[in-house]
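User: Some background: our group keeps a shared notebook of sequences we're curious about, and every so often someone picks one and asks for a predicted structure to add to the entry. Today it's my turn. The entry only has the sequence so far, pasted here. Could you supply the structure so I can complete it?
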Amino acid sequence: MLTEEQNDRLTRVGPGTPMGNLLRRYWHVVAAASEAELESAISVRLLGENLALYRTEHGDLGLMAQKCAHRGASLEYGIPEPDGLRCPYHGWKYDAEGVCIETPAEPPEATFVGRVRIPAYPVQELGGLIWAYMGPSPAPLLPRWDLLVRDDLERNIGVARLPINFLQAMENSLDPVHFEYLHGMYGNYVMKKQGKPPAMTVRKHVKTAFDPFEFGIRKRRLLEGETEDDDDWTTGHPVLFPTILTVNTGSNPMFQIRVPVDDTHTIHYWYLTSPRPDGASPQETIPMWDNPFRKPDGSLKGDTTNSQDMLAWVSQGEIADRTTERLGSSDRGIVIYRRMLLEQVEKVERGEDPLGVIRDPAKNEPMIEIEREGYALRNMDVRFELTYAQQTAALGRAMRRVD
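Assistant: Of course. Here's the predicted structure to add to the notebook entry:
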């Protein structure tokens, strides 16, 4: 178990906190590209800060503090202009660095222009997502993870806005054994209550392993009936530090991206890909769909693999109370991940770059390829229920493992 102070150190992500300072050394998703329309601004929240994301008529992106420095009106209703964002209240305008460049109602001798500024952050669009960096300059390179830049994939993005701290979702990714129980035994129990056949043939974990590597941790497992030549053991699921899980589901690799909105809220993106059919044109836009975790009566769902994960996370509360937990040997991956977080916090406190920060363009181009497992379907037939056009039957069959 952890002390309350230790739990706070791992979970508090606001400005000035140890974990917040670490997470600000990485790029995070603030929106899907389709959400930022031309000549509009939207409200976003990241790492405890309320921000305005805007796109000019030329397609340029900007991100700055949501409140105007003049009298606090919200810039989410601002007017995007080629050189910045104008407040709707009195027309004060800010450039992409957050510097006030116009105060139209003030006399020429006023000294606001160039002197007043609000926080602003660099943003980049990659893979149909908009990424922001909120740390000190110079910003590291935005990682060109393979699934974001490959030109042979179709993509769609699921999203859930969860009332939880980011750590609950991330610890799930370092917990292989929950697959056997939460998705196997509990999933089959839910199917039985609904009068449906079992969703999965449950097999026990023989052993698990966790291997730190350049960009995070590889989680490996060996199930009953498998050999050590199976790639679930030889390769496993890479967790890209600090907040991305990547898995390969047949021929459909995916990311699960966890965005730390604030201490008690996380946005979860399922970044799903599939091979582009021969002769098909590239997608003009990437479809988005909501991945629900509650029933109409407000109770938590549990009849799909994704909703089972969210049930476990949400039921732990907004911030899991780790002062009362009892970790066992099967929780080794969680201990390793927590230790890695704290080690990287200490590196940042010493003024060093933490794990996985990329500054060498040669390492980032043309992309960073991540080795993943590639399962045959065997007898692990897990049913998925995805709201984007129910997905294709092939994708639904292949996506039997997302953890």
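Suggested note for the entry: The first helix runs from residue 4 to 11. Residues 146-398 form a domain with the Naphthalene 1,2-dioxygenase Alpha Subunit; Chain A, domain 1 fold (CATH 3.90.380).
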